[in-house]
Amino acid sequence: MTDDSIKNFLGQLLSEKGSLPDAVSLASYRYLANGHIDSLSFIKFTFRIEEHFGFRFSESDLLNDQIKTVGGLATLIATKLR
Asked: What is the pTM of this model?
């Protein structure tokens, strides 16, 4: 699975909560900092990702700054799938 297909999936999940920036800006979009989802929604969001891709995030994954942008999260997911 490519980073782009993962970003598309993440974009679909986030779009359920409201409109997103254009595709060019999506990778750097800080969905938590921008209030797109709150902490409770983040928990549900990560569960849906884990369920879809068949893995579990570690505590260190969830505390990593990489997880705070769509592009960083997509890269983290791609790494876990390898």
From this structure: 0.91
